[in-house]
Amino acid sequence: MNAAAKPKLTILLAAPRGFCAGVDRAILIVERALAKWGPPVFVRHEIVHNRFVVESLEAKGAVFVDELDAVPADRPVIFSAHGVPKAVPAEARRRNMIYVDATCPLVSKVHNEAENHFEAGRHIVLVGHAGHPEVVGTMGQLPSGAVSLVETVDDVATLAVPDPGRVAYVTQTTLSVDDTAAVAAALQKRFPAIVGPKRDDICYATTNRQQAVKALAARADAILVVGAPNSSNSRRLVEVAMVAGCRNAKLIQRAGEIDWRTLDGVRRLGITAGASAPELLVREVIEAVSLRYDASVEEVAIGHEDVHFNLPRVLAS
Predict the structure, then answer these.
(1) Domain 3-20+204-301: CATH architecture, name and number where available
(2) Does the active-site annotation cover 134?
(3) Residue 254 φ/ψ, nearest 5 degrees
(4) What are the boundaries of each domain within the chain?
(5) How wide is the angle at C-alpha 231 spanned by C-alphas 226 and 237, nearest 5°?
(6) Which DSSP category does 255 fall into?
(7) Eight-state DSSP code of residue 38
(8) Cα separation of 139 and 145, whole Å?
(9) Catalytic residue among 115, 134, 279, 287
(10) Count of Cβ atoms closer than 10 Å to residue 161 Cβ
């Protein structure tokens, strides 16, 4: 197709998008561990929820496993950015393993909040998605029964707690800001004495990317979110875009997944990426769109991020 025959299209590129500081740190931890100890370095679960990232690290010598029993005791193991139950590092210590915790510091903050509430004698309500690794890790910081999980406002109505006067809540860091606010309001109405986070548990990167996608939704005919189907923050971006008014919002992992039929008649295409999706994949999508359209790119920025997290001491030097 020659340039003259291509339909015109404006790409509205969200900023910020893609990697957050916690994901950057987790990937760097694996790379530094490979440099320090040599391959293979084992990683319990996907370091972040993105197959491209996982496969890139596998090519460098990382081996991803489901549980510690698949890791030789003489090789280092890294725990994913989503966090792990306390039983996991305890088992690593029992086996005298070298381990590095790549849990995002903002997830660790939620763990600490939950532990502080427990020590103060409060029952903890965790707002999150059942089965997500971050939720499993957070609930695993405390004894069985100390944490109740709710996902929706409806769940709050049927929630039973030991003492309604001694309740606190924390949240998964990658939820929809608006949906979580509704659940928090329902918890506060049902349990007036409930104690919430001093600062929102939903992380800065999740909040910023959701605000950016809302800005896209106000102008775009369609939105593509680059991210993995098991990435909570990426899936929330699609939901937020649709609620904000852009019903034609799709999650794709790579440019090859674009359904071009859904872009028929589109003149303003929003593009963003979840916090675990590398910029390389965003550029791949832009290039694929530019092959079919006479495309111009306009950045839609709602702010700038300059957050940085230090590496664990064992890898910092």
Answers:
(1) 3-Layer(aba) Sandwich (3.40)
(2) yes
(3) -140, 165
(4) 3-20+204-301, 21-104, 105-202
(5) 55
(6) G
(7) -
(8) 9
(9) 134
(10) 16
